[in-house]
Design a protein that fits this description.
mainly alpha, about 160 residues, 5 helices, about 0% strand, disordered N terminus
């Protein structure tokens, strides 16, 4: 038996591999990270209050997360309105959970929100928060995909 092939496609009854869930989470993380980083940079550079910075980051994470999904489904030929519906169905829960996790982590790191863009603490806390969000959101995405929800709704358009 080829254990490598078996491990790559291993299912434990849920019908969805960890690899599939990790790919979906990585897709979500890409959009979230673009928005999150941009929002944190804007808020920090402008000297905005931490709450305002987090709100901007979360809003941009949703915008970029949905935009990445819409780009793919628009390329598959869906009209804009339907592409938006697919993006909302595919990504809303994943982005929301990811944002709750990563913002909780970064706000919890002492001094991270007050660190400047030129400080290691700012970038390390941001990278760490996104990594934690990825690890903790992957099981959720696996569960949703196994039930035909979340990123599973996008698979028909790939």
């Amino acid at each position: 038996m080829d254990h490598t092939a078996h491990d790559q496609h291993q299912h434990d009854g849920s019908g969805t591999s960890w690899r599939t869930a990790a790919r979906a989470t990585l897709h979500c993380l890409t959009g979230c990270a673009i928005g999150e980083v941009l929002g944190m940079v804007i808020g920090t550079a402008a000297g905005l209050h931490n709450v305002t910075t987090v709100v901007i980051s979360v809003a941009l994470a949703f915008v970029f997360g949905y935009a990445l999904t819409m780009r793919g489904v628009l390329r598959a030929g869906l009209p804009v309105r339907q592409a938006l519906k697919v993006a909302l169905a595919a990504d809303t829960v994943s982005i929301a959970v990811m944002e709750i996790i990563d913002n909780t982590v970064i706000v919890s790191v002492p001094g991270a929100m007050d660190a400047g863009l030129d400080q290691f603490l700012f970038w390390a806390a941001l990278a760490f928060s996104l990594a934690v969000a990825f690890v903790l959101t992957t099981p959720l995405n696996r569960w949703m995909i196994s039930r035909g929800k979340g990123h599973a709704v996008v698979h028909a358009y790939h």
